[in-house]
Structure formats: structure tokens, C-alpha cells
Amino acid sequence: DKSGHKHFMAKEMAEQPAILKAALGFYSGLDSDTLELPEGIDFARTDRLIMVACGTAYYACQVAKYWFEKYAGLPVELDIASEYRYRDPVLGRDNMALFVSQSGETADTLAALRHVRPHVAQVVSVVNVLTSSIARESDIALPIHAGPEIGVASTKAFTAQLLVLAVLALEAGRARGFLSAEDYARLVEDLRSLPGFMAQALDREGEIERLTKMLSQARDVLFLGRGTMYPMAHEGALKLKEISYIHAEAYAAGELKHGPIALIDSDFPVIVFAPFDGLYDKTVSNMQEVMARQGEVLLISDPAGLKAAGEVPHSLQMPPVPELIAPIVYAVPAQLIAYHTALHRGTDVDQPRNLAKSVTVE
Ligand code: M6R
């Protein structure tokens, strides 16, 4: 049932504020100032976190790596599940392994879980399906509470995964005595503001629909970001490839001059995720390098960031959001850009060619 929406993907994007609100309720303590995880997750004893996932779930982990380092001082190792098993990872008895999977049935992720299980202190998973193999074979499975996701392109599961990973990172920071009480309280408050900001981001849909007319004519699209916006660039590129069949790539903004800038000409749209934060100036100077070569730039930023950038070919205004939740809120334009570009091109957004919702072969 698409509840009046044209596609499951549209319905699932629209559900995000409500889902995140409910998930926040699930992971809240008795008073609203604290978060709470199920019993037994032992971050105090963990000396290293190993995260493994595929596709969109991998990009959620890539964002979470910044969070675990910044808010919990916890060393993180991250890999794509299909690669993880084919190296010889050095595991320690005080390591925690964390697997993220919407379906909980992704063959490579499950195989990686079985591979590390005997060697680590704890196996934790973040899943949408609690009865799944990955959930059952973990010591602790944390639900994302996104409800069934039908669209092959993951949307609400991605932002709900990010929310649960943010809760984990803040609780790790607290358990490890890394975050001060004031910082913890402020970050929990930031997390609580998420559903409202998601609704504001979804309100930009009309404008995104107009902007994507230009993208739908492109042969290639480049996404750029720095910090947590770098994984968002990857997520934007993956969504666009999946459902519009336009070749899209993501680069860390600073890598541009190490090769890909050679591709830039006036036919090459470049989408830049750059909220007005501590990394803004650096990213915008990379964006100016693209503009100097007539690249068709679309800058996605907040009012302060758009003002500071001056004239840009295309821009999309986002609300000013706290740094912690920015990657979750900026996921919305990444999703809507892919969705509307695909609609302009007339592709099947819910059931793109060659893809399955759950990848159970290695
Ligand atoms: O069920 P999982 O989260 O383990 O699936 C992982 C990937 O197959 C999945 O995220 C895929 O990349 C999506 N189609 C992306 O939109």
C-alpha cells in the first residue's frame, strides 16, 4: 500500500520524520534528557570497533566512524563486507564488531559476521528485520524501527540506521567517560531536533523537482563532500545510479585535484554538500575550482553557506542544522534528487533493473 504516494520510495521518504521520532522514543531513557540502549552493550571495555556492511548500510557506517571517533574517542575499522573476508583482519579480544543491514540477510555481511564471531568480545547488529539471520546470530540486535522497506533504493532505513548509530556513538562517549555531561546533554538535544529538521528538508521537494530537470539530461554526475558529507556524497551517487541509471561518482572534495578535475566541463553537473561548518571554506574552494572550469555546480547548503558562496549556477537551501545530525538531514536532498531525476527520465524507481532488495548471493 503506497498510502496515496506514486511510489513506495516516495512513501518511504515521507515517513522519515515519523519513523525517526518513534525510534528516538524507543532509544530514550525514562527522562527525555538521556538515551538508552538495551542491556549488555559494553563500550567501556571495547578498545576497537569493527564495522562491516554493504551498499547504503556501508555509507551509514562511514558516517558513524566520524561520530565514534569524535564523540567517543573509539578507534574504528570499517570495511565493505565483500572485501572484509578476503583480507586477514587482525582481531582482538576487546574488539566489538558491528554489522549494519536493513534486511539482515545480506550474504556478504552475514559471512563476515560468522568470520569474526569467534574472535571478538561482542557482536552487535543494527537491523530492520529482527527475525533475520544477522539479528539472530548477533549477541545483541538493535532494531531501527523503520517498518518494511519495499523500494529497492534504501531511504528510510538509511536515516534510521544513522539515528541508531548516533545513539550508539553518544552512549559509547558516555560509557567511556569521553563526553562531558554538558556535551552529552547538548548532543542528545540535537538528536531530538532531528524529526523537525527532516520535515523541513522534505519541504524542499518542489525546488528539487525543478533542479533535477537539468540533471536528468546529464550523462555523468559528480558528488563532492568533506567530513561526514563525504559519505553523503557517496550515498547521493549510489541513489542516482540505482534508480536513474545516470553514471554518478562521489569524491572527497579535496581529492578532486588529484585526478577527477580533468573530467570537468560545462556538461558535467557537480553536486556539492557543504553545510556552513568548520569544513565549509575548504569544500567551497574546491567547488570554485569546478566553477572556474565551467562545471555545472549545484551547491546544497544552509542560508549562511549560500550567502558566503556568492554566485553559484544552482543552489538548494537547507535549514541550518546542528553538526551531529547534518548528515541525516542532508540524506533527504540526496534521496529526492535521485527520485526526481529518475521521474524525469521515466525509469522504474521502485524496481530498478538488475537489482534485488535483498542480496543473498556473495
Ligand atoms: O539489507 P542490507 O542493508 O544489508 O542491504 C545492503 C545493500 O544491498 C543495500 O543498501 C543497497 O545498496 C541498496 N539498494 C541501496 O539503496
UniProtKB/TrEMBL annotation:
Domain SIS, first and last residues per copy:
37-178, 211-352
Biological process terms in GO annotation: amino sugar biosynthetic process; carbohydrate metabolic process; fructose 6-phosphate metabolic process; protein N-linked glycosylation; UDP-N-acetylglucosamine metabolic process
Localization, per the record, is: Cytoplasm
Which GO CC terms are listed, alphabetically? cytosol
User: Which coarse location class applies to the principal site listed for this UniProt protein?
Assistant: cytoplasm
Tell me which residues this entry annotates as catalytic: K357 (for fru-6p isomerization activity)
Highest taxon of the lineage = Bacteria
Sorted UniProt keywords:
Aminotransferase, Cytoplasm, Glutamine amidotransferase, Repeat, Transferase
Give its E.C. classification number: 2.6.1.16
What GO molecular function annotations does the UniProt record carry, in alphabetical order? carbohydrate derivative binding; glutamine-fructose-6-phosphate transaminase (isomerizing) activity
Task: Describe its partners and assembly state.
Answer: Homodimer.
Query: What does the UniProt record say this protein does?
Result: Catalyzes the first step in hexosamine metabolism, converting fructose-6P into glucosamine-6P using glutamine as a nitrogen source.
Name used for this protein in its record: Glutamine--fructose-6-phosphate aminotransferase [isomerizing]
Q: Which organism is it from?
A: Roseinatronobacter ekhonensis
Which residues of the parent protein does this chain contain? 244 to 605 of 605
